Every structure is written in structure tokens, then in C-alpha cells.
Amino acid sequence: MSTKGLLPQPITGEIDHLLATNDRARRNASTFRIIFGWVLLLTGTVFSIIRLLYAPARNDPLSNIPIDAAEILDKCRMLNVQPHTPANFYERKQSDRFQAGTNPTLITNATIWSGRLNGLEQFTGDVLLDGGIIRDIGDIDREFVARLDDLVTIDANGAWLSPGVVDMHSHLGVHSNPGLRGSSDGNSHHGPVLPVGPFISSLGRTILTVTQWMRALDGLNTHDDAYRLSVSGGVTTALVLPGSANAIGGQGLLIKLRPTTERSPTAMTLENPYSTNTSEYDPLHGLRWRQMKHACGENPGTLIGTRMDTTWAFRQAYDKARQIKNAQDAYCQKASTGKWDEIKDFPEDYQWEALVDVLRGRVKVHNHCYETVDLDDMVRITNEFKFSIAAFHHAHETYLVPSTLKSAYGHPPAVALFSTKARYKRESYRGSEFAPKILSENGLQVIMKSDHPVLDSRYLLYEAQIAHYFGLPPNLALAAVTSTPAEVIGEDHRIGFLKRGYDADVVLWDSHPLSLSATPKQVWIDGIPQIKVPHVVDKPAFLQNIPKTPDFEREARKTLEYDGLPPLLPNHTSEGTVVFTNVSHVYARKGDSIVEVLGLRRGHDNGIVQVQRGEIICMGEASTCLELNTTGKPTFVNLQGGSISPGLVTFGSNLGLEDIQGEPSTKDGLVPAPLISKVPAIVGGDGAIIRAADGLQFFTRHALLAYRSGITTGIVAPQSQGLLSGLSVAFSTGSEHRLKKGAVVQNVVAVHVAISHSDNLPSVSAQVAALRNLLLGNGEGELGYWFEKVTKGKLSLVVDVHSADAIASLIELKREIEGTTFHPLKLTLSGATESYLLPSEISDADIGVILRPIRSFPSSWEMKRISPGPPLSDGTALSTLLAHKVTVAVGAIDPSLARLTRFDVGWAALTAGISVSTEEVLALASVNVEKLLGVSGSQSGDLVATQSGGLLEFNSKVAAVISSRRGLVDIF
Prior knowledge:
About 25% of the residues lie in helices and about 20% in strands. By secondary structure, it is of the alpha/beta class. The chain contains 27 helices and 36 strands. The relative contact order is 0.09. The strands form six sheets. Strands 18, 19, 20, 21, 22, 23, 34, 35 and 36 form a nine-stranded mixed β-sheet that branches. Strands 1, 2, 3, 4, 5, 15, 16 and 17 form an eight-stranded mixed β-sheet that branches. The chain has four domains: about 10-65; about 165-275 and about 285-545, Alpha-Beta Barrel (TIM Barrel), CATH 3.20.20.140; about 570-645 and about 940-970, Roll (Urease, subunit C, domain 1); about 650-935, TIM Barrel. Helix 3 (about 70-80) packs across helix 9 (about 305-335) and helix 20 packs parallel to helix 22.
């Protein structure tokens, strides 16, 4: 086989020279034949042949060229090839992911958000999907369309059309749902640096012995229930990453979420950088990006020790990778200049090749990193070893140090954030809802991510909506879940935008994507519709527009001024007279209901509400109220057309019993669990029941932020891992300590138990048996005393339960107990994911339900049968229960997200598909909670004043809390 064209010029030159020399030898042999005759000619010829074929000279260049020289030099050439879009990519008429039999689809009359021009381009037009790509957009060539067979035409009627949502931080398929022991593949627990070991600690001991090359591809579960749910939220592409237990956890996997005919992980992969079933690059299709997970701070510290250990692990790993890279470069330099006698085997190590590729700029590094010290460490490491970071993920303190990010090697990393979830561990304590706004103002790319299943990626768009509410411009908010992540992961040539030649990943929305409750009417992936029969809810017309949001400039400045921990106390507290002007509506409690007591046309500037010592003394026209005599100089608050509503009540999270979830010293802790271990006698032994009131923590940032968001009352039960939790307490979220007036709303609210499947607990049947025993009066001491109140109907029993089967057992148990005691049992189900499967039975048994979370999710097997709601099903758990006259309330599961309760109930009402009044929606998170748990409404009579809109509206902002029980008005 000829080597011409495969070897570099210096080597081919040497070969040509040798061949030329051999030609001269043959001409000389001909001369010798004439002079010396045929014998000498024959001898010379034979000698020449033997010399050339069997005995090359010692200094002959050909003698040192290895037989695989062409392959070696090709490998050297590939080392410096950068990821790139395949040649002629935009000339394609069909996607590489096209599925035969897919009909072309024409979407007409759509309001198109394309993602172009920094997310500012929007226009009305048509989109043609054909061959798995966007064949045309805008003004479509009708003659071409007319030639298409089996064309499907959809009239969007002006609805919004956007690119598919891209989730840049997900654990779909590796932390599967429902969660099962056999499908948890997110982390390796063998050491801090994977795949690049072994790691030798600074003390000289080996603390990592694994040598695997970790890839999410190798653990992807294609049967995860969450794929279908996430698609129904508009998610079309996800970057599935390993977990963060290791400093270097392995490689991520870019997938499309649609099921394929093959139904394999490889078939779901978007632009696999390798040839099929190997780890070699595929040069024919263009070198594609690899994605790698790094982590710093607390998570890898659980394996290594301190931040100093983690940073040393990174530096040692990268130094090893740099040594290999330098050796490869030196080898290839010698090979390319023909110095074959100076080199032997190509220097490589399979365990380290991925990290070497990071140094060659061919891997997108995604770095789980929260805190300033960790961010600074990683930035210094990038400059020491000359590689770039694609994005810092979680990154709660990035908004405090934008200049640090800008000093990273190569380019500033993007920042992938939650909108408001924070304070769940120390390094997230300074997280701010204003981070997206501040980062974007500093010119940094902002991305919203789910960290699924930490947040359900189905509602990733909600993260963008909340980021917009707190100040991120609308174009950047929508780009944060579409075009920006596509660019950062290196796929902006085919996803994240609506452009001719791009993948046909498209979402048609029922309202503007940034409006609360925006839901897909249809989702296309590779041009294939993903929802067989979409269930669509009619939305109010105003939701078709970009939502107007409040001005949070002052709050954002304060956040920076106080290094992420601004004061959360009210700006002003008045125990005198406060006059609210320009009030459009006033809603108030009336028994177990909420009623409108003042209603004026929006924009009417004469609506007045006059308050003295926290009590409304007058409402109506300005001329009427201001004639009243008041003590002292009144404080005026202009609500700008806003309203006054009952303060909301949150239940179900640990709000009030913890400040930082991951820090035991900031928490009340767990109560003794009698079905797991013996309760100490000093606590009360078998007769013990714990009161949450004794462990209340006031003035936590969670509570104060909830207070500033209209959540004036929190109800919390003791934290337990077993059947019995204890007695809940109702408290004021705005109080400084429990001795303040009105701080404790109700010392004992209800008795709380939980029925669930758990490794730590005996069977569900044993748990129900224990509950039966207590309800039949067999409890000792205080436990018996409080359960006697329950059986006599004087105290609510709240059971945290999800399974429909367990709920059915509780319904029968209620009947059994009532048949014995002849007293109605006040039973409330909390959590209640599968309660919608028994709506008639629950209603007939007069049982209440607190849905928490309101957005149901199959996180465990006993939550598997969720009611997904639109667009997957007609109606929701809420609408089903309300239709059967069940008293329903909404709860929370996360103290950092409790503050969003007003948006949770607004979302629930908009997606329910039934007519629900403002009063009924407000009741879901106020009087209904109080009724089901047993809180006296008169004791929880706080009101919340909002500017520029009602409490449930996206354009409003909480301006004040009117507290009759504390005799004051807090003004924000």
C-alpha cells in the first residue's frame, strides 16, 4: 500500500529520495552490463535486490518507520482538532434523527419567538417541519408545501411558538422516578476524582482506587416515568449529568427526550462524539463536544475532607493530565519530523484521556460550585492549567463576584441557577432571587436549570417565569431555558432556536411562555408530535402577553450592599394609623370562607382603607374615610390599584423548625420514633408525644422571606422518620421570638402521623394497626390524652399519606373508629398524591385533603399514579377533588419555596380547567388550611396589601402586612 499522501512532507521526501537513488542504481547496472558482460549484470542486479528488500543500511530512513506510521500520524492530527459542526450541515434535507413515517407538519398563524437577536425577535408567521428539521419559517413557500404528501396542518390562531426547552442540568434516567434502589445510578461512591484516578492524598495514602471512565450513558434508565412528564412541560433536550459526590464525577450525556423505536440510551443520544459502540472519535461526522461534571465545596468534601483537599485533588488530577498531554505533544512533534528512532509507544492512559481532552479544549466542563471561595479556587485552577469552564451550576454566590468569573481562563463561565431555592445548606445560604437579574446586568450568561429530580424538570419554565418576576428581562428569561443553554453546551447549531435547518424541536403554548401556568398545546421533537391527545385549558386573554412585573431595583441593591444577606425586617412598623390609597379590592375572612368586601374598578384612585392598630376602621371612598378622627399623623401607602387580601398560611415544610436543612445545629431535629426504637423514659416513654411549639425557631430567613411574600402564618409539625410526629403549632412568620405578642397563633393545632413505605419502618399494615390501637384509646400518658381528643372530634388528625391503597385503609379505619366512639373523626390527608383516585369515597367520609406539593410528581412508588393534568390529562387532582365537594388546601414541602405559595395556588387554579373564583383560590392557602388543621380563623386574621395588582397576580408586589393579632402594620 502506498504511503503517499498519508505521511508528512519530510518523510515522503526521504522516500522519494530513496526511490530516485534506486533508479540511478538501475541505470549504473545497465552500464556495467555493457562493460563487464551479462554475468556481472546479473550479479549486480541480484545484489541490489537483496540490499533493497532484505538488508537495508544502518542509516536508511525507511528502517525506522513503524508499520502503523499513518495511523499514528492521523492520531496526532486528531489531537488538535476542535469540536465543530459537520460540513454542509445546513444543506441537510433530513435530520440524522429522522424517523421514517413522520408526516410533514405546517404550523400556521403562530406568534413566533425564535431566540434570535438575543431573544428579542418575535413575529407572526408559519413554520414547516419536514424530515425532522425546520424546513422553512416565516413566509413559507406554498408551492413546495403543496408537493408534500400527508401534510398535517395546524392553525395556531396566534398562539406562541418557541424552541423546545433545554435543561442543562438534569439527572433524568440516572436518578429515576419513581425512585427505586435498583435504578439509582447518579453517583459513584468510590472516590473523589472520577474518571481520573488513582488519587494520592497529601498524606501519601491512596484514597481512590477506581479506574473506570464514568459516563451517564452507561447508567441511563430508558424507562424513567419522568421523560413523558418532562416532555409535557416543553422539555425536549436534557444534559444528563452524574451526581456531585465526586470532585470529577464523569461525563454527561445529551439526550432528546422522545422515545425512539430502538428505545436504547444510545438512540436517545444527541450527537454522540464517538463512533457507535466504541470510544473512538468519528471524524466523518465532525468532532462533537463531550460534557463533564466537576464539583467543589460541600458535596465532594463528604468523601475527601476539606475544601483544601478537594482543590488539591483537582490540581493533582490536572497536573497528571497535563503531563500526559505534554508527552503526547512531544511524541507527535517527533513523529511529524520523522524522528521515529527517538520514540516508542504513544503516551496515553485510558483512565486519563477524558481529562486530557479538557486541556485540549474539547470538553464542556460543568462545575457544581456555590460559594465565593470555591469559585475563586476553580477560576485559579483554570488559569493554572489553561482550560475553560462552560458553566458554574447552582452557583449561589456568583452574583456577588462577577469579576471573578470574568477572570476565568478563556471566557467567563455561564451561570446555571435555581430561581429561589436556597438556604438548604451553608454554601447556598446567600442565594438570592435577584441573582439572575444581577448576573445579566454584569454581562454574564444566565441559565435556569432543574437539577431534576431536585426540581421537577417538567416545570423548568416556571423557574424562568420566577426569574423574570424578580427582574430578569423577558428575552433573557426565555433564552435561559432555550437558546442560552443550547449555546453553552455547544449545540446552538441545531437546537435552542427556531431557524431554517434546525432540529424540529418546537413547542406550541397555550399562553405566553413566561405567563404563570403556561402549558404546551403540543410538543414536537424531531418533528414528531409527543402528546397523542393534548388536553388544553382556555386561559384568560391577558396571559397571552409578556407579564408585567414589579420593580425590585431597591431590593437588588440592598442584596449586594449586604453581601447577599440584606435585612428582611419591614422598612417601617406602625401601631398607629395607616391609610392605604388607590385600593381596588378588599377580601376578608368570613367564617370558613373568603368574601370580597370592597370592589372598585382597577385604576380607581379613590379607594381607601384606613387601619388603626392593625384593625380596619374604614374602607370605601376617600371622602368618607379621611373625615374620621385619627390619633397621630397617618402613614399613607399608595397601592397603585392593588388589593388587600387575607394573609396566606403555609403548611407541610419544616418552616419554623429549621434554618439550614443541611446544618444540624440550625434545626430542631428528629423526634423519637416509637415504631423504630424505644422512646427514652425521660421523654415520656410509650406515652410521649412531642410538641412542635417547644422547638420553634423565629426570625429564620425562610420565615421572613415568606412573610414578605404574603405568608403570615406557618403551621409546622415535629419532624419524624416514623409513624408518630406529634403536635403541630401555628406561628407568625414575621415575629422575632415566641414571647412577642401574637407570635404563637395556636400552641396546639393537630396530631400528626405518617403512613408510608420505608426501610426503617415496619409494614404499612403494622403502621395502620398502631394507629388503630391509639384511636381505640390504648395510648398511654400524654399520647393517650391527645388521641382521646382526636377520637372525640375535638382535635384534627392529620395523616401524611400518598398511596391510594393506604388512603382506602384510612377511610375504612375512620368508619371503624366512628362506629365505636360515635363521634365524627376530623381526618385530614396531607400529601395525598393519589387521593384523586378516590374522590367520592373521600367526600362521603368527610375527609379533607392538603395537596403537597400541588404539582404532583412520582418521586416514590406510592406516588406513581399521579394526576398529571394538562396537557396529558383532562383535569388535575385539585379539580377532581373540588368537583366532588372535598375541602382542599395547598401545602408546601420546601421551606425556601413556601414563599411562592401565592403563585402555587394561582397556577393550580389556572390549570385546573374549572371555573374557580378569586375568593376560592385564596381560600386554598388560607381558610381551608386553617379549617382542615383546626386553627381558629379569628386568631389568624392577618391581611396582606399588594401594589399594582392582587395577591395572586404576577405583576403585584407585597407592600404591607396588616396584623390585628399583633396590633400593627408592617410596611415593606
